[in-house]
Amino acid sequence: MCKKRRSGILVHPTSFPSPYGIGDLGAGAYSFIDFMKAANQKLWQVLPLGPTGYGDSPYQSFSSFAGNHYLISTDILVEQGWLSTSDLQVVDFNPRAVEYGPVIEYKTSLLKKAHEKFKSHATTTDLNQFTRFCKQHRAWLDDYALFMALKDYHGGAPWTDWPKALAKRDVKALADMKTQLSNEISLTKFLQYEFFRQWDKLRAYANAAGIKIIGDIPIFVSMDSADIWAATELFALDSNGKPTAVAGVPPDYFSKTGQLWGNPLYNWDAHKKTGFEWWCKRVEAVLNFVDEIRIDHFRGFESYWAVPYSAKTATEGKWQKGPGKPLFDALEKKLGQLPIIAEDLGIITPAVNRLRKRLKLPGMKVLQFAFNPEDESVYLPHLYEDSETVVYTGTHDNDTTVGWYTSAKDTEKDYLRRYLNVSGENVASDMIRLAFSTTGVYAIVPIQDVLGLGTEDRMNTPGTTDGCWQFRYTGDMLQEEYAVQLKYLSELFHRNISE
User: Fold this and answer.
1) pTM, whole model, 2 decimals?
2) Backbone angles phi, psi at 309, to 5 degrees
3) How confident is the model at residue 51 (pLDDT cuts 50, 70, 90)?
4) Are 268 and 326 in contact (CB under 8 A)?
5) pLDDT (tens digit per residue) in 199-233
6) Residue 370: which H helix or E strand, with range?
7) DSSP letter assigned to residue 454
8) d(CA 408, CA 410)
9) Closest CA to 380 of 420, 430, 340
10) Pairing state between β 212-217 and 340-342
């Protein structure tokens, strides 16, 4: 898949400046796009955009098709008339971290007010647009709205703990609850309607500035999700709806005991019988949000680490064969050639590399993995075999570059300094320059590296839940000098050529 040389920034919308405790799709998002344009950056990469569940992780979502309603800008709701300025009471939120408990309580109250105002004041045009949206997304929206209403009704309990008739989707039981919870179902549909409206407008603004958005598809889905509740036959579950095995990875760079993600595995035979229809719908839905897709944990399509459901760590797992090329053939047949980046980090075998190359998908290289002087690394730029690769200083799972360098071994620091011929005093800027200079077709850097931030501002620490997904920056941190530097580098290394 031939791509033009481009560069860009990785930042999730939750990190944007906002007075409401969490980044949203309002002024902070538009200011970021303006910064990107001034910096001549062509790629904005986000994490999954779905509604977050366990641990507030975007990789544990209640739906693979829905948007995260906490990203809805309440300021835009005021502009639309669904809230008043007096509703937006001043709350002393932490401007540098998302404190999810208070934020969710605050925004839920506002979003419910907006829904009530919509119900009582919507014009015929408003209602027609809302109805049209609900019909267009009926295939997933009806199940998701009912799922969220039932979840709230049962105090947030996972669907496996609901009464058996509801967990098993008894037709009469569901019909009765649809009637009882009609307002809650309407609320969820309204929130999705507003999320899609705001996101579509923001995406159009980015595209008009010459910026493409790279989205993210987690290979697995959350057990506590509308996806699994609505299609249990597509997942490896027992008769009680419990997973027979769960996903993870064996011991690696991030953890000596591996990572036990806990997501149910797929019943790939069932998917194959349908022509991978669910996956086709999932990818198509994400492409309604973004321009390109990074598929997380690509190696799991060749073979995946299956861990017994009762296991305490991922060390007890074993490899099992994935769906391989037939899945991607089905996607291409249904959707055409797809703009996919394969996240091929971790334990990558020759078989995984063969699959990626057969599919002609660019892989990833992370510069923080490169500087082990005792073992020549494939992440060293002079060893890249293929320019069709996406180069990162680090990802959302890595420490910031400043944090990584600070805690690195002296031998690694020395190798980096000699390799780049630098002092190490401006390591984030030096690594950005290196990423931009490589033969990799895309170079993408986390915004923390643009801002030169340390470990305290990393986005995620794999294998833990404390302090993850909370990073935010303030508007004054995104200074003009950073845009000037990025623009200079993109011009120097020919990453800004017009389409």
Assistant:
1) 0.96
2) -60, -30
3) very high
4) no
5) 999 999 999 999 999 999 999 999 999 999 999 99
6) none
7) -
8) 6
9) 420
10) unpaired
